[in-house]
Amino acid sequence: MEKLKASKVTHLARKIEVMHEPGLTNAQLMLTNFDLKPVEPQRRQWGAWNFVGFWIADSFNIVGHTTPAMSLPRADDG
Q1: What is the pLDDT of residue 12?
Q2: d(C-alpha 1, C-alpha 8), whole Å
Q3: Which listed residue, of 33, 35, 42, 47, carries a Cα 20 to 30 Å from 16's Cα?
Q4: pTM to 2 decimals?
């Protein structure tokens, strides 16, 4: 019975396992992921205008405006 449970657990673990490069330690697996690596030149789809558009759209983020404003003195602080 124990062997059956272990095989089911192993099977489930292999089904939900994320793809990774073979031969990496557990510490390396935590720091390396296909989604975190730079995109290879043949798969890149963004051009210069994509980066400009992203930069402009990101400038509308409210956090970008509130963070510098926190360093300004309030009117009632004298």
Answers
A1: 86
A2: 11
A3: 42
A4: 0.39
24 Cα distance to chain centroid: 20
Q: How far is residue 59's CA from residue 41's CA, in Å, rounded to a whole number?
A: 27
Give 33's contacts (C-beta < 8 A, 6+ positions apart).
18, 20
Q: What distance lies between CA 67 and its chain's CA centroid? A: 23
The answer to whether 39 touches 28, Cβ cutoff 8 Å, is no
Mean pLDDT value of segment 55-69: 74
Cα dist from 57 to 37, 47, 50, 51, whole Å: 24, 16, 10, 10
In order, the DSSP letters of 8-62 are HHHHHHHHHPPP--TT--HHHHHH--TTTSPPPGGG----HHHHHHHHHHHTT-H
